[in-house]
Design a protein that fits this description.
It is a single-pass type I membrane protein. The protein is mainly beta. It has eight helices and 59 strands. Among the domains are: about 110 residues, Cadherins (Immunoglobulin-like); about 110 residues, Sandwich (Immunoglobulin-like); about 100 residues, Immunoglobulin-like, CATH 2.60.40; about 100 residues, Sandwich (Immunoglobulin-like); about 100 residues, Immunoglobulin-like, CATH 2.60.40.60. It binds 2-acetamido-2-deoxy-beta-D-glucopyranose (NAG) (2 copies).
């Protein structure tokens, strides 16, 4: 039907034109289609056509159209393609000449070929590919390929469209040649992260009816740009850890996402804290975001850490988050004990409740872990008291006694209430200082000691010992002789006590025959203030020694006179002639006497009773026995060694006194002895008188010399230096001597009555030194003016050499 319309319209328009016919046909008509009734249009008869041998002539000899002379029609002979025939030029027409013969005539025929929309717009390529960065700016232009449409006019390319139009719009520019430049312009930012691949369809349409169109794919790859920062999945992470968490423990993992791709999307984590100690305690793994512990946590130092973590991509975009580490307390701190103040010692008489130490206890933990309680051993007389928070005082609880325990080792143990509990302890030593509360106590209730008579003066008799339970000075015992008198003589002239050692020394030689025992008191006194003391009784028993020989009381020994016992010749056996009587002032064995006959004229006649000293006859007296019998009896005591005495007993064996007398009167040697004695006595008297006069002269001259000498000394103003004999100690008190004993031996002219005399207390010597110490020294001895002496010395050296002691008389 379309063809029909196209066919008739030119007819109608071009009818009436003579000599020339114009037709308009659409292209692409099928073969044989009628172009036009030429016979009719040119006013020619069909017969004329046949007769005139009408033909079609074309300049280029193309034969698209043929002439049907039978019907007078122009018919399509070949397919007519306007695009092939004319290309883009318009109008497109075929110019024909129809020639006739007989007569020759010719007619021009124009056959206008009208375009039909038989071509659609086409693109040379099916698709175009672009790589566009997502950072491309709005307005960026991208030239697209143009489409081609062979048709012309409305059938030609009319319009383009690009779909979808989210990011790009199409912009067409008219070119000078009438064609169009096709561009797509970015009108909305690309985002690789939402769409990394965009496919657009460019459609080119013509204006034909029906409209034809061609398409091309435009593929756009969106190139990544680091336009996305990493993004943490959480802004804050909270982790709770124990402070004892070991190093290396993973605490948390943070993660950030970066929408970019490739290196732009690769996230690296780091800790950004700088000021605090977080970097030294925590570590984050760069790639994985694993946060682990690399240091030791301490709740007591920090309870909470804020770790600032940064995530960054390669492009330098970052995000940050915070990890809050909450540290929880564990009982990891022992209580620490500090001694605030401490007295080293308390006196043993301190009242209960005396504070001697204050301690302070700290526990760094918190809560129950930091609550501390302290205690000490229970069996001490001490208490621990909590005074205020964290302070404790140690006090005495009961009476103390240094003598029971002089020091206490106090272990203070403090434990916290954590589970498990931690504790620590400290040991203090408390010294109990001494108070003089114990008197010295003698080891024995009383002392008894024996000393043999005739002892050497200064002999130690016994050692007393008293102990004092106190300490040091309070326990330093001094022994003091308590002043008393024995038979009116001060006890100090009998014994002395060594103050330090308690040794009792005899001051004199004792004589058992004069005193058998005596007792006195010794006081032991300590050095405390005030001192304490105690007494003890010491009894000294003097032991007898065999120092006295037996004394014969009967028969009395007379010098010249002769005594004889008479024994009648008629005496019986066992006749008691006489009894030797002897005594011994010693006692005991020393006074146990035995009698023996030592010598006898006739041993067979007499015997002496061993025990009783009775002299008896042991046989009948005969006439042959001499009248004069001389017997020597020895009396021995039983001492060790024994002492003895002898007595001569004259016995006359006679019946009458004259007989006896005649026997005993003749003793001529006795008279001679008496004469000799008288001579010696006269001689001795003369010698003694001479010596006496000589002495008198010497003494007087010495006295005069001294008197003159002392006058010289008083005129010189020399100081008077008190002199103490060497080894003389001033500590002498109440008869107590130190270790050294000072006594002088004084001898009378009668050596048999030798006696010892001891230096006296308070004896003071005054020494007046010689100005040059080379001459005479004078010493005056007090308080006995009767025994004052002068000494002379040439020795110029020390005092001890400058003068000499002088002895009694
Ligand atoms: C106290 O401790 C000290 C030193 O360890 C020790 O010498 C002393 O004997 C102790 N005292 C007591 C009463 O245990
Ligand atoms: C010791 O003896 C003296 C004198 O005999 C006496 O005064 C004193 O009280 C006694 N002291 C003691 C502690 O017995």
């Amino acid at each position: 039907m379309i063809w029909q319309v196209l066919l008739f319209v030119p007819f109608f328009l071009l009818g009436g034109v003579a000599g020339q016919a114009t037709y308009s046909i659409p292209e692409e008509m099928s073969k044989g289609s009628i172009v036009g009734n030429i016979a009719q249009d040119l006013g020619l008869d069909v017969k004329r056509l046949q007769s005139g041998k009408a033909r079609i002539y074309t300049e280029d000899k193309t034969e698209y159209i043929e002439l049907n002379t039978d019907r007078g029609l122009l018919l399509v002979k070949e397919r007519i393609d306007r695009e092939a025939l004319c290309g883009q030029s318009t109008p497109c027409a075929l110019h024909l000449q129809i020639t006739l013969e007989d007569p020759i005539e010719f007619y021009s025929v124009h056959v206008e070929i009208n375009d039909i929309n038989d071509n659609m717009p086409t693109f040379k390529k099916e698709e175009m590919k672009f790589r566009i960065s997502e950072s491309a700016v709005i307005g960026a232009k991208f030239v697209l390929e143009r489409a081609m449409d062979l048709d012309v006019g409305v059938n030609g390319l009319q319009s383009y469209s690009l779909k979808p139009t989210d990011n790009f719009i199409l912009k067409l520019h008219n070119q000078q040649d009438g064609s169009k430049k096709v561009e797509m312009v970015l009108q909305k930012y690309l985002d690789r992260e939402t769409q990394d691949h965009i496919v657009l369809t460019l459609t080119a349409s013509d204006g034909g009816e029906p409209q034809l169109s061609g398409t091309m794919r435009v593929e756009i790859s969106v190139l990544d740009v680091n336009d996305n920062a990493p993004l943490f999945t959480q802004e804050t992470y909270t982790v709770t850890v124990m402070e004892t968490t070991p190093i290396g423990t993973i605490l948390s993992t943070v993660s950030a996402v970066d929408a970019d791709e490739g290196s732009n999307g690769k996230v690296v984590y780091s800790i950004t804290n700088t000021l605090d100690d977080v970097p030294s305690l925590f570590k984050i793994e760069e790639e994985t975001g694993i946060v682990s512990l690399i240091g030791k946590l301490d709740y007591e130092r920090t309870q909470r850490y804020n770790i600032h973590v940064q995530a960054s991509d390669d492009g330098g975009l970052t995000d940050s988050c915070k990890i809050i580490i909450e540290v929880t307390d564990t009982n990891d701190n022992q209580p620490s004990i500090n001694i605030m103040s401490k007295s080293k010692s308390v006196t043993e008489n301190s009242r209960p409740g005396t504070v001697f130490t204050i301690i302070n206890v700290q526990d760094a933990d918190s809560g129950d872990n930091g609550k501390v309680e302290c205690s000490i051993d229970e069996n001490l007389p001490l208490l621990i008291k909590s005074t205020s928070n964290k302070f404790y005082s140690l006090v005495t609880d009961s009476d103390l006694d240094r003598e029971i325990s002089s020091e206490y080792n106090i272990t203070v143990t403090c434990s916290d209430k954590g589970v498990p509990s931690l504790s620590s302890s400290v040991t203090l030593t408390l010294q109990i200082s001494d108070v003089n509360d114990n008197p010295p106590v003698f080891e024995r209730r009383s002392y008894e000691a024996y000393i043999a008579e005739n002892n050497a003066p200064g002999l130690s008799i016994i050692t007393l010992k008293a102990k004092d339970a106190d300490w040091n000075q309070n326990a330093r015992v001094s022994y003091i002789l308590v002043e008393s008198s024995i038979n009116g003589v001060p006890v100090s002239s009998y014994v002395s006590v060594a103050t330090d050692s308690g040794v009792i020394h005899a001051v004199r030689s004792f004589d058992y025959e004069q005193i058998k025992d005596f007792q006195f008191c010794v006081k032991a006194q300590d050095g405390g203030s005030p001192p304490l003391s105690s007494n003890v009784t010491v009894k000294i028993l003097i032991q007898d020694q065999n120092d006295n020989p037996p004394q014969i009381l009967y028969p009395v020994q007379t010098g010249g006179s002769l005594v004889a016992e008479m024994v009648p010749r008629s005496a019986d056996v066992g006749y008691l002639v006489t009894k030797v009587v002897a005594v011994d002032v010693d006692s005991g064995q020393n006074a146990w006497l035995s009698y023996k006959l030592q010598k006898a004229t006739d041993r067979s006649l007499f015997e002496v009773g061993l025990q009783n000293g009775e002299m008896r006859t042991i046989r009948q007296v005969t006439d042959k026995d001499a009248v004069k019998q001389r017997l020597t009896v020895i009396v021995e005591d039983n001492g060790q060694p024994s002492r003895s005495a002898t007595v001569i007993v004259n016995v006359a064996v006679a019946d009458s006194f004259p007989e006896v007398l005649s026997e005993f009167t003749d003793l001529p040697h006795n008279k001679e002895y008496n004469e000799n004695l008288t001579f010696y006595l006269v001689l001795a008297l003369a010698v003694v008188s001479f010596l006496f006069i000589t002495c008198l002269v010497v003494i007087i001259s010495v006295k005069i010399y001294r008197w003159r000498q002392s006058r010289i000394l008083y005129h010189s103003n020399l100081p008077v230096i008190p002199y103490y004999p060497p080894r003389y100690s001033d500590t002498l008190r109440t008869g107590t001597l130190p270790h050294v004993y000072n006594y002088e031996v004084c001898r009378t002219t009668d050596s048999r009555k030798s006696d010892n005399k001891f230096g006296r207390d308070g004896m003071q010597n005054v020494l007046i030194p010689d100005p040059s110490c080379t001459g005479t020294m004078q010493r005056i001895q007090n308080p006995s003016p009767g025994i004052s002496y002068t000494a002379h010395s040439r020795n110029p050296h020390p005092y001890s050499h400058c003068f000499r002691y002088l002895r009694c008389k």
